[in-house]
Amino acid sequence: AQSVTQLDSQVPVFEEAPVELRCNYSSSVSVYLFWYVQYPNQGLQLLLKYLSGSTLVKGINGFEAEFNKSQTSFHLRKPSVHISDTAEYFCAVRKMSNTGKLIFGQGTTLQVKP
Amino acid sequence: ETGVTQSPTHLIKTRGQQVTLRCSSQSGHNTVSWYQQALGQGPQFIFQYYREEENGRGNFPPRFSGLQFPNYSSELNVNALELDDSALYLCASSYLGTGGEDTQYFGPGTRLTVL
């Protein structure tokens, strides 16, 4: 079975500072990896995904993530955050050999302060 | 191109009642997945429908059932509602091709409150 651990439940950061949201996963088989963002009272928006190839993945809104197979991690980073980045961020995995079932972490609340 | 839409936005029911939630897929997608997101939690997979058939199910009881229609829209039905069913219900659509990878795009969700 797969599992996802988001190591920080809340990350407070000042505007224009860099940020890293940490995600570790556990799986006995190869997986696809995703980051989604959820703004208050909204659904999930796809930020980026790792399917194969380069381990550094660039997404929307200036976010990027790096897949590290040996450490089973997929940390999300942004060099300079804005107030508008305040939201809940979810890391998710899906088995390559399966369809559909995304396994989500518990989420990390990013709080950007002025 | 329209995105994933869900209806209704909000719903209040009482314990023991039945509810139907609806989802319209993004244009060109053939697969719909449903998730339950309790307050302060990550979404939990309920089931997925591909070409009108269930294509995987999470750890939810049989009173959670679904349908997918020829136009790839979908319904989630929940019978005998319990207080713990109160949650945000998210629908995600995707295109499942021969490669087996389907990136899921989510709708805005339906907030269900069970009293």
Describe this structure in words.
Chain A is built from no helices and twelve strands. Chain A has strands at 3-6, 10-14, 19-21, 23-26, 31-38, 44-50, 56-58, 64-68, 73-78, 87-95, 103-104, 108-113. In chain A, strands 2, 5, 6, 10, 11 and 12 form a six-stranded mixed sheet that branches. Chain A has a four-stranded antiparallel sheet with strand order 3-9-8-7, with no helix packed on it. A two-stranded antiparallel ribbon of chain A has the order 1-4. Chain A is globular, with a radius of gyration of 14 Å. The mean pLDDT of chain A is 93. In chain B, the strands form two sheets. In chain B, strands 2, 4, 5, 6, 9, 10 and 11 form a seven-stranded mixed sheet that branches. Chain B is globular and about 45 Å long. Classes of the chains: A mainly beta (114), B mainly beta (115). The interface between A and B is medium-sized, with 25 and 29 residues.
Q: Secondary-structure blueprint of this entry?
A:
The complex is a heterodimer of chains A (114) and B (115).
Chain A: E1 3-6, E2 10-14, E3 19-21, E4 23-26, E5 31-38, E6 44-50, E7 56-58, E8 64-68, E9 73-78, E10 87-95, E11 103-104, E12 108-113
Parallel strand pairs in A: 2-12
Antiparallel strand pairs in A: 1-4, 3-9, 5-6, 5-10, 7-8, 8-9, 10-11, 10-12
Chain B: E1 5-7, E2 10-13, E3 19-24, E4 31-37, E5 44-50, E6 53-57, E7 64-68, E8 74-78, E9 87-94, E10 105-106, E11 110-114
Parallel strand pairs in B: 2-11
Antiparallel strand pairs in B: 1-3, 3-8, 4-5, 4-9, 5-6, 7-8, 9-10, 9-11
Rounded to the nearest angstrom, the radius of gyration of chain A is 14 Å
Strand content of chain A: over 45%
Range of helix content of chain A: under 10%
Order of helix and strand elements from N to C terminus of chain A:
EEEEEEEEEEEE
Summarize the structure.
The complex is a heterodimer of chains A (114) and B (115). Chain A is mainly β and 114 residues long.
